[in-house]
């Protein structure tokens, strides 16, 4: 299954990649692994050292927040929201 994955502009710029990516997989984990295979610098920004989604990151599939084992239907829109904070 394929999906259109989008990153925040800030996250894409940090690692020097495009905002949009076509990815394959039937779960969020599979989709992320496909993305990381092509853009390994993103892994540490999205997942922590234990492989969990970082607390300041949210993954949405077709507009609904998802977990790593969440289903990704064919032609889904996957969005990685990377929160920004500061003062």
Description of the molecule:
- The chain is of the alpha+beta class.
- It has a single domain, classed as Ubiquitin-like (UB roll) (Roll).
- Helices cover 25% and strands 30% of the residues.
- The protein has helices at 9-15, 28-38, 43-46, and strands at residues 2-7, 20-24, 57-61, 64-66, 76-82.
- It has a five-stranded mixed β-sheet with strand order 2-1-5-3-4.
- It is globular and about 30 Å long.
- The N and C termini lie far apart (41 Å).
Radius of gyration, in angstroms, nearest whole number: 12 Å
**Please, how many domains?**
1
What's the helical proportion of residues? 25-40%
| Global outline | globular
How is the largest sheet built, in terms of strand order?
A: 2-1-5-3-4
What structural class do helix, strand and pairing data support? alpha+beta
Task: Give the helices and strands, then pairings.
Layout: E1 2-7, H1 9-15, E2 20-24, H2 28-38, H3 43-46, E3 57-61, E4 64-66, E5 76-82
Parallel strand pairs: 1-5
Antiparallel strand pairs: 1-2, 3-4, 3-5
